TrEMBL record:
Pfam families reported in the protein's UniProt record: FKBP_C, Trigger_C
Organism taxonomic ancestry: Bacteria, Bacillati, Bacillota, Clostridia, Lachnospirales
Keyword vocabulary terms for this entry: Cell cycle, Cell division, Coiled coil, Isomerase, Rotamase, Signal
Coiled-coil parts of chain: 177-204
Keyword Signal on entry: yes
Record localization: Cytoplasm
Top-rank EC class of the record's enzyme: isomerase
Name under which the protein is recorded: peptidylprolyl isomerase
Sequence ranges assigned to domain PPIase FKBP-type in this UniProt record: 78-144
NCBIfam families linked to this entry: tig (TIGR00115)
Organism: Faecalicatena faecalis
Length: 355
């Protein structure tokens, strides 16, 4: 996971003199021994079943659910309750046993269930009203870490009761939520096409990742431009500093606790990832020059606009870096070429075991 996380970064810009020969491509930094006919694991789109369509539609209906706050009755199964609770065993609080403003769907089985002579956590909330404070007693299951079979008392305050209203799949709902379909049957076909498209895109992405990995294996390094490797390492560290900020943590704490890496380990992994990224970029530039894959300015602008989405293109370029975007687009085009010219190989048990 650590290596995968470190590998998910954009590569740096570099300039290289390009030269090529019939089967190999080379410059002052690297030699690409092979790029056509790279062998990669076979990838095929899975069939979209009726169950897949139903699950996708149910997810969309759930996302469109509305919430109604309940004030005139006690809590019942299916309700979402907001509670404060404090758990004790033999009068002493225990770690993880207390929370404030916790949402819980009654009947979901999310909390401790019935065990022996003790009812479950959720079923003991049923029947209580907003504003009530009460105690319940539960017994932890025998496979619960550090708390096996212990009896705990939870003091609970019921803050709020609400219920989720999930819309039904009707022609009316379809008309209101689809630009293409007007009936339920049409909508099911629409969703199926979307899922099939997603599956194909997933296969495409898998193959592109595979050919790029196979390409890196075909690269012989003479030397790497140190400034580019250092820039890439700085980019990697900057990325994780931003991640740490999202979690409200200092980078060193994020690295130690979330990534579980020492400073030396992080620097080593960063360098490895940076060198791989630079090698990949050098190889892609060589292949693009040899096969005339360099996108035109018009193609670059079109792709950057797609990447930007609803964001202002100028602001997007300033935020990400236009050179970085162009290199990313170039890599994408090279990856597409490599996929078109790769050899997909069936994976046997012996091959998988060898890995």
């Amino acid at each position: 996971m650590k290596k995968r996380l470190l590998a998910l970064t954009m590569s740096v810009l570099m300039a290289a003199s390009l030269a090529g020969c019939s089967k190999q491509l080379s410059n002052e930094y690297i030699t690409v021994k092979q790029y056509d006919g790279l062998e990669v694991p076979k990838a095929e789109a899975t069939e979209v079943t009726d169950v897949d369509v139903e699950n996708s539609i149910n997810g969309r209906l759930s996302a469109a659910a509305t919430t109604e706050e309940i004030t005139d009755r006690a809590a019942q199964d299916g309700d979402t309750v907001n509670i404060d609770y404090k758990g004790t065993v033999d009068g002493a609080e225990f770690e993880g046993g207390s929370a404030q403003g916790s949402d819980l769907v009654l009947g979901s089985g999310s909390f401790i269930g019935a065990n022996g002579d003790y009812k479950g956590f959720e079923e003991q909330i049923v029947g209580h009203n907003i504003g009530e404070t009460f105690d319940i007693t539960v017994q932890f299951p025998e496979n619960y870490p550090d708390m096996a079979n212990k009896v705990a008392v939870f003091n609970i305050k019921l803050n709020k009761i609400s219920v989720q209203h999930v819309p039904e799949l009707t022609d009316k709902w379809v008309k209101e939520n689809s630009e293409k379909s007007k009936t339920v049957e049409e909508y099911k076909k629409e969703v199926k096409k979307e899922l099939e498209k997603n599956n194909k895109e997933s296969v495409k992405s898998t193959l592109q990742n595979s050919v790029m990995e196979a390409l890196v294996d075909q690269i012989e390094v003479k030397k790497l431009p140190e400034d580019q490797v250092k820039d890439q390492m700085a980019s990697i560290e900057s990325y994780y500093q931003q991640m740490a900020a999202v979690y409200g943590m200092e980078f060193e704490d994020f690295r130690d606790q979330m990534m579980q890496m020492s400073e030396d380990d992080f620097n080593k992994e960063s360098k490895n990832a940076a060198e791989t990224a630079v090698k990949r970029k050098l190889a892609c530039e060589l292949i693009a020059k040899k096969k005339n894959l360099e996108p035109s300015d018009k193609e670059y602008e079109k792709q950057i606009k797609e990447y930007a989405g609803d964001q202002d293109v100028k602001e997007f370029k300033e935020q990400v870096g236009e050179d970085v975007l162009k290199n990313t687009i170039l890599q994408q085009k090279v990856a597409e070429y490599l996929v078109d010219n790769c050899v997909q190989v069936e994976q046997t048990n012996s091959t998988e075991e060898a890995k």
